[in-house]
Amino acid sequence: MYRMKKLINVLVIEDCVADADYNVNLLQRAGYVVTSRRVETEDEMTSALETETWDLILSDYSMPQFTVHAALELYHAFGLKIPFIVLSGAIGEEKAVQLIKAGVHDYLLKDNMTRFISVVERELKEADILLKLDSLSSALEASELKYQNYLENAPDVVFVADETGRFITINKAGCELTGYSKQELFDMSVLDLILNGSIEWKQKRFYELLQSGSLNTDFELRHKDGSNRWFAVNVTQLSDNQFLCFAKDITVRKNAVLEVMKAREEMQNLNKYLMDARENERATVAMEIHDELGQSLTAIKIDLNWVLKNIADSEKSGQKISRIIEMTNDTIKKVQRISSELRPGLLDDLGLATAIEWYSDEFEQRTGVKCNLTLEDVPEGDERTNLALFRILQEALTNVIRHAGASSVCVMLRQVPGGICMVIEDDGIGISLKKITSGKSLGLIGMRERARQINGTLEFVKTSAGGTKIVTFIPFQPMNPTPDENSRCR
Question: Is the pLDDT of residue 10 over 90?
Answer without folding.
Answer: yes
